[in-house]
Design goal:
The protein is an alpha/beta fold and about 250 residues long. The protein is built from eight helices and six strands. It has a single domain, classed as Rossmann fold (3-Layer(aba) Sandwich). The longest helix has 17 residues. It is globular, with a radius of gyration of 18 Å. Bound molecules: iron/sulfur cluster. The site of iron/sulfur cluster has 13 residues, from helix 7.
């Protein structure tokens, strides 16, 4: 580790009043090329993609190609790549899981969303993060209860430094930035789809619902596991996937 946990805690506190661009510039200066940005390529991802490509155009951008995205997301990813010449790396489920995915087919998001997220998101990301020093993510404190307690700089259990430059932004700040810079928007209407994940686990929200109310409706699940300790222990146990029907 380049910085001790105590140094990171102190820097993180200092960054509470820094701009996202200042935090990204610090991260690039300290960790390039051993640093990546992860992005889900929805409208709210655009400010961070824009800032990173302005500061370090060659930074790798990890996109979880789950095979379950809306076509609109894939088209939007392609559009941003074409206009900004991004260095996108698509991450896909490891071959060892293909038989499981074939067996459960399109039912898995419904029968066991935790296993589905593990195979399609967490495991490919954990594998791709090996050997890296730092990871930039677009999470914000106003998104979920779990994220409300996050820090701008935080070590994961694997010793990777997670950097969240937009942690103190709100949904309004994101959209004001998009307006101000006239940035591209995901084709799905923001008023109905303010948070977009995989198609089976995303629905349009009602006018009185919160930003992430359309994610995993009825599943008692608010996070895929990338930003929690859900899968960070030593492997997983039968309890993690107890709803899975027998093979
Ligand atoms: S968001 Fe849904 S479809 Fe995507 S990986 Fe998770 S459970 Fe599977």
């Amino acid at each position: 580790m380049k910085f001790t946990p105590k140094e990171i805690a102190s820097l993180s506190k200092d960054f509470e009043t820094a701009s996202p661009q200042e935090i990204i510039q610090w991260a690039v200066d300290e960790f390039c090329p051993n640093i990546v940005l992860s992005s889900s390529f929805q409208t709210q991802s655009v400010p961070l993609l824009y800032m990173v490509k302005e500061i370090q155009p060659k930074m790798r951008i990890y996109f979880l190609d789950t095979g379950m995205h809306f076509w609109d997301t894939l088209i939007f990813r392609e559009h941003l790549d074409q206009i900004w010449d991004l260095n996108i790396v698509d991450l896909r489920p490891d071959k060892k899981w293909h038989a499981v995915l074939r067996h459960f087919g399109t039912d898995l998001p419904d029968t066991d969303p935790n296993l589905c997220c593990y195979i399609r998101k967490v495991q490919p990301m954990q594998k791709a993060m090996k050997g890296l020093d730092a990871w930039i993510t677009g999470i914000r404190r106003d998104q979920t209860e779990n994220r409300a307690h996050a820090q701008i700089l935080e070590y994961t259990r694997d010793g990777l430094l997670r950097i969240a430059p937009l942690l103190n932004w709100t949904g309004d700040t994101v959209f004001n930035f998009i307006e101000e810079k006239n940035l591209p928007r995901h084709p799905l209407p923001h008023s109905r789809y303010p948070s977009i994940g995989c198609k089976p686990c995303t629905r349009a929200i009602q006018p009185n619902e919160g930003e992430r109310a359309g994610r995993w409706t009825g599943k008692k699940k608010t996070e895929c596991g990338l930003h929690t300790d859900m899968f960070n222990k030593n492997g997983f146990t039968e309890d993690d996937f107890k709803n899975l029907p027998p093979l």
